[in-house]
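Sequence only, no structure available. Ideas?
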Amino acid sequence: MSELEEYHQNLMADIRREADTSGIFPVEAFFDRMAERLGEAGEIDVAHPSFYCPAGLDGGQRLRIDGYAGDPRDSEGVLGLIVCDFADSDKVQTFGKQDVPRILNPLIRFLKKARTEEFRDSLNEANPAFQVSDLIITTWSQVTKVKLILVSNRQYIGRDDTVKLADIGDVPITWSVWDLARFERFDRSGQAREDVVIHFARDFGAPLPALKASQNGAALESYLLIVPGEQLAAVYDRWGARLLEANVRSFLQARAKTNKGIQKTIKDEPELFFPYNNGLSATADAVSCVRTNDGLAIASISNLQIVNGAQTTGSIHAGLKSARDQLPQVFVQMKLTVVPPDRSEDIVPKISEYANTQNKVNAADFFSNHPFHIRMEQFSRNVIFTAREGERHDTKWFYERSRGQFINARARLTPAQQKKFDLEFPKSQLFSKTDLAKFEFSAAGQPHIVSRGAQKNFAEFAKDIGEAWSKSDARYDELWYKRLISKAILFRWIETEVPKQPWYEGGYRANIVTYAMAKVFHDANGEKQVLDLDAIWRRQSVPDPLRRALLLAAAEAHDVITHPPAGVRNMSEWAKQQACWNGIKARTLNYDDDFETCLILLDSARVAKRDEKAKKAMTEGINAQSEVVTLGAKFWQEVLAWGCERKRLTPKDQQILGICASMPRWLPTDLQSHHALDALSRLRTMGFGDGQGHSDVQCAPLSKARAADAQVTE
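Reply:
I predicted one. Tokens follow.
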């Protein structure tokens, strides 16, 4: 069985299980599963389901839409429309370029119809097609491009994944295919596309003048470039968000709209754009250089990623519409670093971090190698949860801090090991960075932020985590992780149950879930009592009284979301507003009397936190003492002598290192062991362990009195 066939088999099993469990159609489960991938990959910012496929024909032709990519005013005027091509088959099916018109034409016909008030007004306001049509009518004057996205669980065997189809008036239409193979690549490695190779000389007029800014043989090649505004706008018009690393793009969009000052300069003083603007910082996998009469130039760039300068790029691109005549006078500098793919995860976040220093929270906070994500990953591989009632095996929750970790970890195992892995890490207990952000922000009373989509929600969540982490990372301990899992259990349970409810009419499930969870947390958590999260992670299930409370809140959330105030027609957009959350917060719900059994005194929850800290301190102390003993007295004698010779030790350092060097006559305490390891780390930064020897300089011998004094000081 090939990797693609195995991926298809697992995908279909997951979709069917989700459809059966939640009571939804398989194509809906497929859309929900893949919509998040589109956001993570930077294809769109958010994907809203909007299933509309009437049984009748419109003038002999079918209409269809399955989803849309939010308000085009939030994505530089790009209107994204989605259609699903789903084959409920056990074998991998294929389709070619000749099949694309049959799949996309119903979507194009829907777009033409949806632009008319006659079509919109013929629909019920609760109909998802009404919501999309109203949005299109309202925003059409600001739409600069229509992007049709074909999402399929079949394998596409055609070529050219993005080409122009047709124009509607003066608005171009493009289309792209996300097929089974593309999703498989993304789920395994986070890479969903073939390489983007920008041929400046061939496709965009001329190579870019460049100055090499690195020596021959340097670890990383670097260049300084002067990019004409017309070329940058044309490149971005063709590839769009693919040039902006998804996490950094979210980071920038979460803080500000495209800078009006930049646009004003382009319009009124284009010749001053270069001296006024800080320019772009970018990375690439490879570049192709040529020699021209004017010197070195770059003819092509492979996999260009703009890690700082998204607002500048967006503003210049906007100039195609608002200041086309001025663009020839606009130039922007670019610092380009060639980073080999195998080093990108280490290098690119640092480039982003240092290039984005004007922002309060560094862009690196959004990357998978931030210490927060690494710590959560460590917990997820080590923390064991007791088997649920009726099950035999204890399990763990698998945190995937970077796309592909789960599927690749499993693929490396033998069949017997895979069975063991599946018992240890059930697929239903896999969660990603964006999932984590949804769980946390739902519980924290931010359902309107969660409703804005996985990437925007993650950007806001990461901002909060970045600020809190920089002050103290101590709170993000094992108990914090366990309570996170409780929130995951609650979120996943509501997600499954909402479609089964008699009041559920289809649509807005994601909004209802986050609002219901936020409402219950808001009502449960007070000055004296809070929701007992510890009971949930211990049981790995939701208590019955809490289930009833969540469903009551879900019904109320459904009512608030589907009955927006006068003048508001788009319910998905309404759910993104603080006012929507204020509306449900203000409602009083009559929970059952036994809901109280799901609460715990705040003081008791704090005691559990203190106990966890004490347990952690004890464990860390034991580990530190064990490490010191394992290194041995002779090693610590060398450390002590090296530090004394170079006068790098404080009196306290000498006392404690002297105890370590006197083992087993003296045994350092837990605190002394921590101090010794800290001192060792400090000396290593000064050169200890680099092969440098030391003289016979000795520190004063450790007397019994000084050893005893060292014990007291700790």
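The longest helix spans residues 602-631.
Hope that gets you unstuck.
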